[in-house]
Amino acid sequence: MYPLKDDGKPDYSRVVPCICRREVLDKERTASMLRLCQLPERSVDWTFESFNTAEDAGLLEAYNAALQLANEDGGVKWLTLLGDWDRGKTHLLIAICRRWLDRDRPARYAYVPLLLKELRRSFDEKGEYDRMFDFFCKVPLLALDDLGVEKQTPWVMEELDTIVNARYVAGLPLVITSNLALDEIPPRIASRIQRESWCKVIEINSSEYRLRRRA
What we know:
This protein is an alpha/beta fold. It has helices at about 20-35, 55-70, 90-100, 110-120, 130-140, 155-170, 185-195, 210-215, and strands spanning about 80-85, 110, 140-145, 175-180, 200-205. About 45% of the residues lie in helices and about 15% in strands. Strand 3, helix 6 (about 155-170) and strand 4 form a beta-alpha-beta unit.
């Protein structure tokens, strides 16, 4: 449709979507961003609203930091959640991604071993590796799940370090979960995730999350 000028007359020099078409375009954009994010199918209900802190101090700290990053309103731009298996780390990481998508902001979830497989496969297609690597470096929010599960070869360390460094230099938001202790994380990455005032590292020492959620 033709938009109206300030004087109320139609502006025939351009067209804009009508309300019904705009709603369709908004839904298509939302669906496209959800596909791009590649969240696990089983995580459809992993949101901030469904997260059970059980009044645990460590979980409350992690929850509040995650919420700040998700809403971009509390100074936290890099969040690293450490702790044993099944402590709610991935739930919070995915909740951050979902909140970004709700705010019409692109995000990318990546289970670290699968991210590396994607990069390896892209070598077989001309130009695909550069495109994919550039995407991981520049997507507005990158969520790296289970850092440390991957086999730490020199190539793996170079790829991960370069992605993390590129996002550090650009000041782009990053979320990391890991079962490693802080001193077990590769030194260059460990240094960057603590270096700035907008970096926060939280170790969760609560009981198993699934057991607590059933209680």
